[in-house]
Amino acid sequence: MPASTLPSPCIGVCTLDPATQTCRGCHRTLDEIAAWSRLDAPGKARVWQRLGAQPVPPGWQRKRCAGCGAPFGCGAAAGTCWCMQLPPLPVATPAIDCLCPACLDAALHRA
Q: Could you tell me what percentage of the chain is helix, strand and coil, using 3-state DSSP and rounding each to the nearest 5?
């Protein structure tokens, strides 16, 4: 999987907040949503980094990446996490808690 395939932050709760002009589900701006498919890996990583400081959707958990320490939202318990768009890590991977999108992408490339 190429590095530019960082998953979309979309969680399927696509409603625009008129006050902030951002999506209530993923907290991306309209420009970020529109540009996502054209962004390179560093561009996608910048969006994810900005989103790490945003509130997490209901049912999600605020986590710190076990790889780099970056904050991010994890929706695995809610069944709507961005990581569900990616293949699972091989069983041989040491047991770790959640990884941020960039570190999970890197771990999948190493596997």
A: 35, 10, 55
Handedness of CA 38, 9, 3, 71 (dihedral sign): positive
pLDDT tens per residue, range 5-52: 678 888 888 889 899 899 988 889 999 999 999 999 889 988 988 887
Domains of the chain, residue spans: 3-110
* Beta-bridge mates of residue 73: 62
Q: Tell me, what amino acid is at 39?
A: L
State how far the alpha carbon of 91 is from the alpha carbons of 33, 100, 109, 111, in Å: 33, 19, 15, 10
**Whole-number Å distance between alpha carbons of 22 and 29:** 4
